[in-house]
Amino acid sequence: MLNLRWNYRYIFFLLSLLDILAILVFYPAKSQAELPKSDVSITEVEDNKAPEAVVNQTVDTSIAPVIRKKAPNDLRERVTPVSQLLQVAPPTDKKAPNNSAGQVTSVSQLSDVKPTDWAFQALQSLVERYGVIAGYTDNTFKGDRSLTRYEFAAGLNAALDRLNELIATSTADLVKREDLDTIKKLQEQFSPELAQLRGRVDNLEARTANLEATQFTTTTKLIGRAQIVLGELIAGNNVVSKRPAPHNATLQGSTSLRLNTSFNGKDSLAITIGGGNIESLGQTRAGLLGTYEGRTADNSSITFARNTLILSGVRYRFLPFPNTQVNIYPLSDGASEIGLSGPINPYFESSSATGANGISRFSRRSLVYNYGDSGPGIAILQGLGKQLQFGIAYSAPNGNNPTPNNGLFKGRYLALAQLIYYSSNRNFRVAATYVNTYSPPNTIGFSGTNFGPAVGSNLVNSTVPGAATIGNLYGLQAFYQVNPKFAVNGWVSYAAHRYVGRGDGNAMDWAIGLAFPDLFSEGALGGVLVGMEPKMISLSRGVDLGAGAGRADKDTSLHVEAFYQYKIGDNIEVTPGLIWITAPNSDSSNPDSLFAWVRTVFRF
């Protein structure tokens, strides 16, 4: 049953019917008290919204709130919920229903009505003067609840019965024709507004019925994202062939569709499909530059054909306890699913629903988050009070493969643990991260290697043929919002590799990023990042990763990146950017490389 809502106009209408006769018949010298006016604010209705613990900046699981904006200055603007008022009192000459309280004789008997309430005088008159309002059985008025049409009809009927009683007990001399004409005129004045309201209610009922009959689902929201990328290598050589790389402009694109479903408001099932033809400028050793350095964040999967829709992510999240979030994923990435990287570096890596803001993969994440590929696993995020958060994740990149040296527990794996501290105002956060990872001999992952972060130098991403590889990674990341228009973030990571039976190697990376929200325009974002992509800083004498036994990266390569994200409305943004790599592949004999990248994103 559709609910109506009480407001002072309805109450005034009832009082007018009663008071005009009372004024003219019984109290000719007494004037009617004014009713206080109500303030109407915007009402926000949030349906199927996932709780705060389920929503993080890495994977967007919330269902957008539906906002009911303030109506124009007509009858709708004056409707204020006061509400599901009461057991309406029957006429004074009839017995009250069994489920109603005894007829109250004073408004003070209603425990939840206060003299400061805006409708107090109106309610006092309806209760004490005319006896047409009764409370609930617990002596409450419940003024903040919705009023059903049945209850409104009962209240109106009680008022009209009382009006008829007043007329019937009056004499012909006291009730004049012009008084009845006044009442009739008042009813006529209200009739257009009531008819208009009735039409709107009928139209709303029809639209609601049509929506219920044709909607896709009541529990699922579809989120779409498409992007067009214009890119070009302005300068640089292929580090393997030592020859100049082609400098050709390209126009490419990709799209993704995400279905977010909540079954009980405290869980989230996300299914993502997508595809495209974007070629990263530094995605594989066999690519344009022959190195993983400068790898752009916008790229298609190297394991699937271009322009093919693929299932790129599946995960289910739920809250077994108020401060515990559990993520189970047959296809995803543990570092992303646990929601650990996004909150530490929010301006360079935003949620997966909106995509990365930074141009490169390196600007989004430190070394500790980049080992391992997509696969099945589980992640648990535990809140420890209001300012601490502890998370663990386990992923097996080849966990869907039942062949030897694969599977969920006998193949490649990555185990991650992290502790995050937030300041009370959330302007500062710092995280300590540990990762243990293992790769069996001769296994190949999505990045084209069986081990490594898939960013940085070729040696960091290399293994010894026939040897298993173990990694212990340590990272420290921090973020500080200096003011609303300036923030700084940074990290330093260290990795200890063990090539089983052969020797050890050590890798490292670091970065400092500056973000400028609302730069030149509200909603815009500027970013600058300088850092050293992962490089092999030392290597045992008996280990040869392709540069010779015991030879690590000999020079330091710097990554310099700048971008400016400009919003065109709420659903379109354009992000031009540059990536400058000095001494590519940590070799000063290679000339610097420079990429230009312009990304346009459409959200729907």
UniProtKB/TrEMBL annotation:
GO molecular function: porin activity
Pfam families recorded: OprB, SLH
Keywords linked to the UniProt accession: Membrane, Transmembrane, Transmembrane helix
InterPro entries in UniProt: Carb-sel_porin_OprB, Cell_Envelope_Struct_Comp, Por_som-like, SLH_dom
Family under the similarity heading: Belongs to the OprB family.
Alphabetized NCBIfam families for the sequence: por_somb
GO cellular component term of the entry, any: membrane
Membrane-traversing stretches: 12-29
Name of the molecule in the record: S-layer domain-containing protein
Organism annotation: Nostoc commune NIES-4072
SLH domain span: 106-170
GO biological process, one term: carbohydrate transport
PANTHER family: OUTER MEMBRANE PROTEIN ALPHA (PTHR43308:SF1), OUTER MEMBRANE PROTEIN ALPHA-RELATED (PTHR43308)
